[in-house]
Amino acid sequence: MSSPHTPASAFVARRHALAARLASPALFAAGLPTSRNYRANLYPFRAKSHFLYLVGESIPGAALLLAEGRATLFVMPEADGDALWHGPQPSMDALRERLAVDAVLPLDELNGALQKFGGKVATLPTEDAKSAAWLSERLGRTIGFSSGDKLGDEGLDVALAEAMIAQRLTHDEAAIEQLRAAARASARAHLAGMRATHPGGTEADVVGAMIGSLRREGLEDAYGPIVTVHGEILHNERHDGELAAGDLLLADVGGETPEGWAADITRVWPVSGTFSATQRAIYDVVLAAQRAAIDRVRKGVRYRAVHDTAKRVIVEGLRDLGIFRGEVDGLLARGAAAIFFPHGVGHLLGLDVHDMEDLGDRAGYAPGRTRSKEFGDCYLRLDRDLEPGMAVTIEPGFYQVPAILRDARYVGAVGEDLRRDVLAKYADVRGIRIEDDVLCTDGEPEVLTKSVPKEAPEVEAVMRG
Asked: In the chain, which stretches have pLDDT less than 70?
């Protein structure tokens, strides 16, 4: 199955809506290709997300200028030899018609077009120095290449960032269809991974099955795939481990459509095909937390409250298993949740798997809200009130991280109310995370990734084939 193709009219509508929010011209760079080791050996090119949002195609070295009610695309002309090495390239007239922009011009005309505005052209920071230098040269000022928290005092850029955030926080119908397509294909990749898992196999076997499934459907990776028996390492991107019968395999894998829209799914399954009693007990605690958090993805609910819901259910569940003792409120106040759930419950999802994090916390945090300084909560990437059209991930977890469990800074306040003798019985649980992509609507939350089984008996049934 292929991803849907967004009609040019949707990009026209996005460009018009953004221009209406702006008081100055704005320039969006697609970015430049990067060489791996010699000039002609390039990494696969993927345009910057803000450019993709407004244009829909990855065009190396291109730039889009929104000014005076017009959308002008500047592109590198076809070079000698391009047809030989890369095949026929579309003409500028063909690009103009296909992308429904007002004009397509050679890139060397960009500087002249910018000069007429006397330097009063907004842009957004980029994550790589090469593209930042390219923008800086054309705009005559320094453009950063780090977090959007460092936009500085350049008022034009701040205004553009705020306008883009306001527009991209909620997705239009074309974007939602892209997210649904990414979710469907990524769900099938997870099923392929489950079926490729068996004792004596390797993590690499499973990664190959999952990435192969995505490629067959025309999707790239939205991020580096995490497929590991060491689920306690949150971003473990190594795939050199062997699979043993008592292991749990954590797979955090999501695809990206050709237009750049992402999915982000995590599932955990037993290598043997059957959860042990202790694995099942912890798994059910995490699943209960995830279901409770998903149910709170509703219009007007503060995302921090969704996070707090997951924390509470996890602490309650671990208390019921005897791993914690005492009152839940008191345990939460002493930081008990972060001992085993030391990250935020999720993040925005869209063109970026962590959508708009290139713009820093100004995207994820509503005005007047700041990150907590408490361990665990400080990693919460989103603190806004949910609105219909927002897509978020919900991904609580349980991890036995030795560095946390032996550090008094994190466990000291809980003291002996963390029952280590009981915890020792769950040694076959290194890490469990269950993650779905969820769309906020006017009513019930829409779980975009619901086709991937997550109830323990359903997971075991897939494993049995």
From this structure: 1, 146-154
